[in-house]
Write a structure and sequence with these properties.
Elements: H1 31-67, H2 89-100, H3 113-128, E1 131-132, E2 140-141, H4 144-154, H5 189-208
Antiparallel strand pairs: 1-2
């Protein structure tokens, strides 16, 4: 076992004996340093407050210089004396009306689901009903089912066949038409949920009867 030696307790080779009669170290406590720190902190806070006050005065003076002198139209009023204003249903309805009529582009509130559903609804109206073409008098859109019937009866205009003896360049290939795998249109989950909810509401009265 290592032996404990009293000379190892001496601080950095000093032979001064430590007075342990009080039960705690007394030589490390320096009240002068604490007083100096607190004094410097108080001076710093006071100087900072004076600077902030002076900068505020300068800014207010510049603002008053730009706005001009106070008059009966620019009198400062303490709004705290008015208290809380009562709710007005008419004002709330007017605010809601103005909010709904806010010009586009508006902020989306439903992650765009309703916008996509509205877009598909407009497309359905254009595809399934007769409608006039804006800016082109005399032209009318016809439903897509009727257009398919007319195309099946009359056929499509045939384009002139390209000459077959043309020499293809390097990397070129003959164009080929591939039938699409889908029609390119699919309902979103939001629209399917709406249709399912409307169908359930329509079937509910029948079930009650």
């Amino acid at each position: 076992m290592p032996e404990h030696k009293d000379d190892m307790l001496q601080s950095h080779g000093s032979n001064e004996e430590i007075d342990a009669s009080h039960g705690y170290e007394q030589s490390d406590v320096r009240v002068t340093g604490i007083i100096v720190f607190l004094t410097a902190l108080a001076i710093f806070v006071a100087v900072t407050g004076i600077l902030c006050y002076g900068i505020g005065k300068i800014i207010n003076a510049e603002l008053n210089k730009e706005d001009g002198k106070n008059s009966k139209w620019t009198k400062t009023v303490d709004v705290r004396q008015l208290g809380n204003l009562p709710n007005s249903p008419a004002l709330q309805s007017k605010m809601a009306e103005l909010t709904q009529q806010f010009p586009a582009p508006r902020v989306q509130t439903d992650d765009g689901n309703q916008d996509v559903a509205d877009l598909h609804t407009r497309e359905d109206l254009l595809l399934n009903f007769y409608s006039r073409v804006d800016g082109q008098p005399g032209k009318v859109r016809i439903p897509i089912d009727r257009a398919i019937q007319l195309i099946a009866q009359k056929g499509l205009p045939v384009a002139q066949a390209a000459p077959q003896n043309e020499t293809l360049l390097t990397g070129d290939h003959k164009p080929a038409v591939h039938s699409p795998l889908t029609s390119g249109f699919a309902r979103t989950a939001y629209e399917l949920e709406l249709e399912h909810g409307e169908g359930a509401r329509a079937e509910r009265p029948k079930a009650e009867k």
